[in-house]
# Entry
Amino acid sequence: MNHPSPSAPEHGTPHPGDHDAGHSHHGSLRGYLTGFVLAAILTIIPFWLVMGHAISSSLATILIVLGLAVVQIVVHVVYFLHLDTRSESGWNMLAFIFTIVLVVIVLGASVWVMYNENANMMPMSPQYTNHRQGS
Amino acid sequence: MNTIAVDTVHSAPREFLCREEAHPQTGTLLGFWLYLMSDCFIFAALFACNAVLGTSYAGGPTARDVFDLPGLAVNTALLLVSSVTFGFAMLEMARQRKRAMLGWLAISGLLAVCFVGLEIHEFVTMIADGAGPGRSAFLSSFFTLVGTHGLHVTVGIVWLVVLMLQLGKYGLTEANRRRLLCLSMFWHFLDLVWVGVFSYVYLVGVLR
# Structure
């Protein structure tokens, strides 16, 4: 079953771009296993923190869980999606960075604006009115 | 002009400034990547909704009441393993081993079916317990975000089945390889989005 030659008859005519694209998209066994182990560790830690109540401060737990999620997303992008500066002459990376900037703006601004809207205009719960009075 | 400069210095290795940049034959993979990036915006908007509305319980059940964390751990494991087995399928594709590749694809598909099945079970249980999407803004945003992700996975499964039939009939043709590369990006992307879902919606949800 295993063809010794890299260019099988059904592969079509060889093209300089094909090899490069194939290399960067297939990855390697080692890469997938590394990604899997890292992702598993980065998944187990937040579950353990939340289900085992490992840290008494919930704010600290939230920050750690979110931080680990960001690290795991980077792991997925590098080891599973094989994003690097060379794939598609860097256009993949450029589009990805552009997306991150917009996503951060969408998420950050939504939370920021709506938090202030809630605090200043709809004092529904006594907790908000106590904390945010006069701001 | 540059070649002359290099020729005069014999000790330096020959190097040409005009290198041929490798470029793909078709723009499909880049185009599909751009689609995934636009899909990111859909999920970003839904995550923003959940961030804003996540504590608006309207006197109804809270995140702590409705979320089943052990079940979530099983779901997360299913999706992660499915992502890795899909990667193994792509490695077999690179080695031209069609049968092994189809086997890994089938395993990935079955894991994803289990994932969607558990998610539907979770939704049905929640709705039966009076925690449906109409109960509060928190539950609306939860069902919209997690449901959109589940719908993506379902579409991915349909795509996988169609592609496996194509592969069985026509083999590893150039077109099928390209389609499989696109599907693998889609598959890994959905696992990436799920990292955000389980971390933010579920784990942070029960804490805040």
